[in-house]
Design a protein that fits this description.
This protein has seven helices and 16 strands. By secondary structure, the chain is α+β, with helices and mostly antiparallel strands. The longest helix has 13 residues. The protein starts with 8 loop residues before the first helix and ends with a strand.
Length: 301
């Protein structure tokens, strides 16, 4: 655990949450331009990617193409090298990358619904295991850096990917929905079948790097990432192990996350500096998550 100064727990935790004191062993997180706190240092090789914002009530889904949000690992192919979104090279077998076209591709390495942990272990090995990679599909959802709007890029994917002649290279299916009611029906059906949620991409939007209003994600319960800055000691039945994690959001706000952990995770909690994913139901007036619950540690890329 972090080296917490001995003092009454409630007082110390209150000061932490108020942002008035830092544990002596916890360095300040790096600050991005504009005042946000970086979740991880940027790599000079990190590809320029289009990133999604959360779906907002009042938007018209009829203007978007809708696809399933795959619970996979983001993978960018620049025409020569397959990379994680951090820029680190993915150690894929030679036969896997040799089959990919010269056209840049953005997509997810995927094993199917509810197999994220096994997939994550496979694609992060320094030496790939051929038999494991034979089960993986590379699901493409965009042709980055092209000038066409998304509807045109999406239509062109079939010809680009078809030329590879391999069954494991596929385009993510895109559909249209008529209105908000149809969107919610499609979301619930996807989740009931084991899906994570939906992605909506404005059909008339050009490709652009960075967080974009044209790309939205929608889940029944939203989730976010935050960095661990302290481990708060437990009390009661959790005495002697972690009771909560003190997290810092990308905008610098902090909150304590105390639910969603197994006993094994409390005995060996995510270390200071790790990035974790949590789900939540809503936000407070100040922007903090309400009813937040731990999901997983985000693997370093």
């Amino acid at each position: 655990m972090a080296n917490l100064t001995l003092r009454p727990r409630a007082t110390y935790l209150g000061l932490l949450l108020a942002g008035l004191v830092w544990p002596a062993s916890v360095p300040a997180a790096p600050v991005q331009a504009g005042g946000g706190t970086a979740l991880s240092p940027a790599s000079p090789l990190a590809p320029a990617l289009m990133l999604a914002k959360n779906w907002q009530a009042g938007l018209d889904p009829a203007a978007y193409l809708v696809s399933e949000k795959l619970d996979g690992v983001r993978a960018y192919w620049d025409g020569q090298v397959l990379r994680f979104k951090s820029g680190r090279t993915i150690a894929a077998p030679a036969w896997f990358t040799a089959a990919l076209p010269a056209t840049p591709l953005d997509g997810e390495l995927w094993l199917g619904r509810r197999h994220f942990d096994r997939l994550s272990a496979t694609v992060r090995r320094n030496v790939p295991v051929d038999a494991e990679w034979r089960e993986i599909r590379y699901m493409i959802f965009d042709l980055p850096h092209e000038a066409d709007v998304f509807a045109e890029r999406s239509a062109r994917m079939a010809s680009v990917l078809g030329g590879a002649g391999v069954a494991w290279l596929q385009a993510v299916a895109q559909i249209r929905v008529a209105d908000g009611t149809a969107l919610q029906v499609h979301l619930l059906k996807t989740v009931e079948q084991g899906g994570e949620g939906l992605v909506l991409h404005r059909a008339d939007a050009p490709w652009q790097a960075g967080r974009s209003d044209a790309l939205r994600k929608l889940k029944t319960t939203p989730d976010e990432d935050a960095r661990v800055i302290a481990q708060v000691p437990g009390k009661g039945r959790h005495t002697g192990r972690m009771g909560a994690l003190l997290l810092e959001m990308p905008n610098g706000q902090r909150f304590a996350l105390g639910t969603g952990f197994t006993d094994a995770q409390r005995d060996a909690p995510p270390p200071v500096g790790a990035v974790v994913t949590y789900r939540y139901r809503d936000r407070t007036a100040t922007g903090l998550p309400k009813f937040a619950s731990f999901m997983r540690v985000r693997e370093a890329e």
